[in-house]
Amino acid sequence: MSLMDVIKAELMEEEAAIIREYEKTLAADEENLCVAVDQLHTNDVFCPVCKRNPLMINKAVIFCACGLRIETGEDCLTLSNVQSSLEEGLSLHNSECGAEPSFSVMSSNYDGLSTTLLMTCKSCDYMHVVI
Hints:
The protein is an alpha+beta fold. The chain is 41% helix and 20% strand.
């Protein structure tokens, strides 16, 4: 086997390895995209803090598997209300600012029992009370 044949074989082997790695990456990207599309087709309200898990509600408590817990003090609040408030806040913010807002939970000062979910943006000083 000549030196040219050895070099050619090594290059072909390297090319095949690059193609295999590309195909693995492509498959992983496709799987992630499918998961994202599936999430869009659900009626779940995803946690604005972790952005992975759906929010759940039990009486006056809204919570997430990530540890988020919001004591609303009101049994009449639904996840649909939360979704509407999130969409409204994001829409108002995004019409003025391109930065991604952050979400935090604060204890309410007036009764000490309920908590509030706030959406804030450090770039534009926007604040929206979600719950």
